[in-house]
Design brief:
With about 190 residues, the protein is α+β, with helices and mostly antiparallel strands. The chain has one domain (about 45-190). It has 7 helices and 6 strands; from the N terminus they run H-H-E-H-H-H-E-E-E-E-E-H-H. The protein has a 4-stranded mixed sheet with strand order 2-5-1-6. Strands 3-4 form a two-stranded antiparallel sheet. Strand 3 (about 130) and strand 4 (about 135) form a beta hairpin. Helix 3 packs antiparallel against helix 5.
């Protein structure tokens, strides 16, 4: 910044001054538009999902991801035609035993002996900043699967509106900003 000001003062050229002003204006607009895209808010009536690893050991994180993948694949099929929060809530409540079996099968198939807990209701989520978006801490209606000690990093997403259920093939080639706009579009669709 100081260097630019020194060049402007030294040159005294209004043409250079105009270029610098234009660059600052364009930079300001770009920052404003990026900030605007990254200020997506999750609706109050959202239903979240969270899988908490036992610890941050690589093996515990791998099990967390396997549980997440299996649970997510199951829920994609179960929730694909749901249109409301009430439908999603009923489907989750009706399938707690199936979710229990999925988690248990993942642990058994990976030779892991570990306790786990599945809870659907109001659960605490800490504040999180992810890809420039800040998610506020608080108690949210959610499905939480806690593995072992539940002291490791977690994975979470939104089940309703169905942000977790977006087909991975649809988002593979999108840039981060395009993805955020797509997420915003889905949230707005379910707000109305």
């Amino acid at each position: 910044m100081k260097l630019l000001l020194l060049i402007i003062l030294k040159e005294g050229n209004s043409f250079i001054m105009k270029k610098v002003i234009i660059i600052f204006l364009i930079s300001g607009l770009a920052l404003f538009s990026i900030k605007k895209v990254s200020s997506i808010e999750i609706p109050d009536d959202a239903i979240r999902i969270r899988v908490v690893a036992s610890s941050n050991l690589e093996s515990d994180q791998e099990i967390k991801l396997k549980v997440k993948e299996n649970v997510q694949n199951f829920l994609i099929k179960k929730l694909e035609n749901s249109k409301s929060k009430e439908q999603v809530k009923k489907i989750i409540e009706d399938n707690i035993e199936n979710l229990n079996n999925i988690v248990n099968n993942v642990l058994i198939s990976n030779n892991v002996k570990m306790n786990y807990n599945i809870n659907y209701g109001l659960n605490y989520f800490p504040k999180k900043v992810y890809k420039g978006i800040e998610y506020k801490e608080g108690y949210y209606e959610s499905l939480v699967i806690t593995l072992g000690n539940g002291k490791g990093k977690n994975w979470w997403c939104i089940l309703f509106p169905p942000l977790c259920l977006i087909d991975a093939t649809e988002t593979e080639n999108l840039t981060e900003v395009e993805y955020k706009l797509y997420v915003k579009k889905i949230i707005e669709k379910f707000k109305n």
